Known about the structure:
Helix content is about 25%, strand content about 25%. The strands form eight sheets. The chain has a six-stranded mixed sheet, with helices on both faces. Strands 30-29-20-21-22-31 form a six-stranded mixed sheet, sandwiched between helices. It folds into five domains: about 10-115, Beta-grasp domain (Ubiquitin-like (UB roll)), CATH 3.10.20; about 135-210, Ubiquitin-like (UB roll) (Roll), CATH 3.10.20; about 220-355, Domain of unknown function (DUF4445) (Nucleotidyltransferase, domain 5, 2-Layer Sandwich), CATH 3.30.420.480; about 365-410 and about 530-650, Nucleotidyltransferase, domain 5 (2-Layer Sandwich), CATH 3.30.420; about 420-525, no CATH class. The longest helix is centred in the last third of the chain and has 25 residues, at about 525-550. With about 650 residues, it is an alpha/beta fold. It has 16 helices and 31 strands. The chain is elongated, with a radius of gyration of 30 Å.
Amino acid sequence: xxxxxxxxxxxxxxxxxxxxxxxxxxxxxxxxxxxxxxxxxxxxxxxxxxxxxxxxxxxxxxxxxxxxxxxxxxxxxxxxxxxxxxxxxxxxxxxxxxxxxxxxxxxxxxxxxxxxxxxxxxxxxxxxxxxxxxxxxxxxxxxxxxxxxxxxxxxxxxxxxxxxxxxxxxxxxxxxxxxxxxxxxxxxxxxxxxxxxxxxxxxxxxxxxxxxxxxxxxxxxxxxxxxxxxxxxxxxxxxxxxxxxxxxxxxxxxxxxxxxxxxxxxxxxxxxxxxxxxxxxxxxxxxxxxxxxxxxxxxxxxxxxxxxxxxxxxxxxxxxxxxxxxxxxxxxxxxxxxxxxxxxxxxxxxxxxxxxxxxxxxxxxxxxxxxxxxxxxxxxxxxxxxxxxxxxxxxxxxxxxxxxxxxxxxxxxxxxxxxxxxxxxxxxxxxxxxxxxxxxxxxxxxxxxxxxxxxxxxxxxxxxxxxxxxxxxxxxxxxxxxxxxxxxxxxxxxxxxxxxxxxxxxxxxxxxxxxxxxxxxxxxxxxxxxxxxxxxxxxxxxxxxxxxxxxxxxxxxxxxxxxxxxxxxxxxxxxxxxxxxxxxxxxxxxxxxxxxxxxxxxxxxxxxxxxxxxxxxxxxxxxxxxxxxxxxxxxxxxxxxxxxxxxxxxxxx
Length: 653
């Protein structure tokens, strides 16, 4: 019997933070061990030690819970590929390239966030969102056999064979526009190239090629709103959102609201061309902005996801939306659309792909679908109300059992339009209001000034940031505070009798006006302004009530307010006015640009595209204009907060 020590043949490897573990033969590359366990570690170069994206580190020590003693020297010594990489780029002292380092003993391996290809953090204004990364377009680094006399196979065919043998892609093809570039790229790269492969149509398709090694691949998620256009640039290899920008929708010059724009194109022979050209130009400009901020080019962008309301959806595609101007509000196309970038000229790489989420109904668009995907009422047991408040409010209500959707024509009042001193949210706009119920004197906060108007610091910044008007959140708070102070009645009438005790109440023709601010400009809330908000909030609430009736529910469990307006409105004031149903205030939240987040989800993960396409098919659509009870709910909702429904959570009856 031999007394020689037992030679180990394998070792235990634990990957963190996933917690996955397994035994592997000594000499197994760490990257291979990770893949066998389903631990996703980024690698663009296919384990050749070129890209450096597969970095990991060893957690040293005795891990009693896992029964592992992990040491750094249980990895193979630093190899030639790692030394070469460290010379050209930066490799931290505690990091190793998992494609080069091999298992030599028990190990606990930490996979840093930038090396993980799933669960990447994508940020939005209201929250941090983890998105599992499974993109439709990927980069592959190839070493292609050189041609010779005995093997006359064409360069493109040998490239495809390399994709099959080196990356196990099944029956890949090359898009026609790439073919003329293949030979030049192969020779310039000395038979080493990086290709972008689109894998969205079941057949892997080479859509772009570069000589040598390349590890830059961008995608954009774009929310095309009727007022603003927001663009987010993502690194498709890491999942990070690296730049965001927004711009005004230049179509505003053709009409403040969507129906005004439809009317414009109906009355002007070249209206469709003008509207489409305007919105596409704005999208191009905002893409330019984000790639410039990222020090890249538009050629780096090979994926774009767009969302928008039905009219914007049609106009950016160059489709006449006039059928949406009247019943039955027929969409030209409602399903998801996938196309080559060269078919919709937005200036991104011609080999890129554009995906547009499906529309839910004639007035509930791809933006509402994206917001639903992001906030997930269909994944919850709670009865959840999702409202995106704009010139046309889009409303989704339901849970995992059943979900319904509708729109309500709220008009532009919530965005400051149709209000005497209304303006868009910009420096100088009043955004917060408090009214003393005894003196009826108001104090305000404006965008760009962090102080209330009764604080000394407010006056110090008054020349720099004046008081120029009132934006959407400000008008909601102003009217809610007027109601709480007794300045306006339940029916929305400004009480002229209060003029006897306050110079803030002033007569104006046959009605009265409340002076909100006295300064360089006297900013007033008129009886007409109150009526505009009553009409808008009644339309919104009536739409919500119809959905509640359809699902036969008396209360909702949770409310999510989306969009720019929803992000700044105070939930309590929204309930005081009866803008939204009574609900536990703690369960009412602003969710920011949920449509933009949903677009990013569809950009980063093909699975979310399938999810929203399937969900839209089972969402029940309700057309508020055709519902018999709409008028009944609308009339009741004209009162503050409502003639019929109680609002105990708001503190009012």
